[in-house]
Amino acid sequence: MKAAQFSRFGGPEVLEIVDLPDPHPGPGEIRIAVRAAGINASDWKKRQGLMDQDLPQTLGYEAAGIVDEIGDGVSGVALGDRVVGASPYGAAQAELAVLSYWATIPESLDFAAAAALPAAAETAARALDQLCVAAGNTLLVNGASGSVGSAAVQLAVHRGARVIGTGSPATHDALRALGAEPVAYGAGMSERVRRVAPKGVDLALDVAGSGVLAELIELAGGSDHVLTVADFAGAQRHGVRFSRGDSGRATYALGQVAEMAAAGTFLIAVGRTFPLSDVAEAHRVGESGGGRGKLVLLVG
Description:
This protein is an alpha/beta fold and 300 residues long. It has helices at residues 41-47, 111-115, 118-131, 147-158, 172-178, 189-196, 213-220, 232-238, 252-262, 279-288, and strands at residues 2-6, 15-19, 30-38, 57-58, 62-70, 82-86, 96-99, 101-104, 138-142, 162-167, 181-184, 203-206, 226-228, 241-242, 270-275, 294-298.
């Protein structure tokens, strides 16, 4: 099969499309013929050598496609089904991918829209679970307009929380449509939040990593009411929880958001799509911040 890979760390130019052996699912896994694969910031962090140090490395943790092989002990899915899911092997940006958890793609979603769901949904749901977001809470989401932020907004609103979301003024109409009360980020953000929530907020989630943890702590009344998925150094400095998947993943969220998407109550906007062969260009766009919405590779 053809797959995205790099054999040295560096810029997008180190990415190659190579031929690799076809993978096969183990017990409890399935394999799909990939039709679309999501791109995340972790992809270029890996490529830059900021994460795993082994070489060569493949890329991609989320993909949508058609089931073409089923491992032992798997039920509830059949060959030919349209599914979206997550690969534990970081090799989903390829013609074939093995998934460890998945959900049926609703009829209303195409493959690109489905491939935008897994990472954002799981990260957001895990963070909300760790913050114990529930009905009646007021939650501040810093970086609410990105894929993880918008997922967190929608899932928190679904739980019955009041959500205040930071974003640039250009994103405010979109944030309102998701159910959030928008506030501009940048200097004076705390004062703007207090205009809509004079007593502060109950909880705060940072998905932007923009260096505002001290302000979030003040608004939420303590570091134990704040969680970040994007600022590891700041979390250590301020005594804030940093959410990562190694303590357990919210795998249930994929099925939940697929059902919500089918009902028209959940959306992750796809920004640009690229053929697998243009993975380097997709990295350039993503790193530069030049693409609004989720970036997706199309395969096959």
